[in-house]
Amino acid sequence: MFRTAVEHAKKHPGLIPQFFFICLGMGGATLYLIRLARGPHVTWNKTHNPEPWNKLDPTYQYKFVAIETDYKNLKKEGPDF
Question: What keywords is this UniProt entry annotated with (predicted)?
Fold first, then answer.
């Protein structure tokens, strides 16, 4: 498959930017999925830590970008589990 793409790129040089941006998008999507899979709210081993989100501090910034929420001033509202 890679050989076919290289052959097409040699015949049609206008495809080179398209191949570049497709690979860039696929790489970015893969890195983002890896980031999501390693987040604090995801558990892969339910016997070791079945509820990892209960051990997080209320000032932990959950979102990638927080525009209006200031997580430093939040207080814990619920009981400890």
Answer: Membrane, Transmembrane, Transmembrane helix
Q: Among 13-22, 38-47, 60-69, which range has the highest average pLDDT? A: 13-22
Longest dimension (CA), the chain: 66
- Rounded Cα distance between 77 and 65, Å, is 23
Would you give the DSSP letter of residue 72? Answer: G
For 74, residues 6+ apart whose C-beta sits below 8 A from its C-beta are 58, 59
pTM: 0.54
Report the alpha-carbon distance of residue 9 to residue 40 in Å, rounded.
42
Are the CB atoms for 52 and 43 separated by under 8 Å? yes
Q: Is 9 exposed, middle or buried (0-12, 13-18, 19+ CB in 10 A)?
A: middle
Domain positions in the chain are: 1-38, 42-76
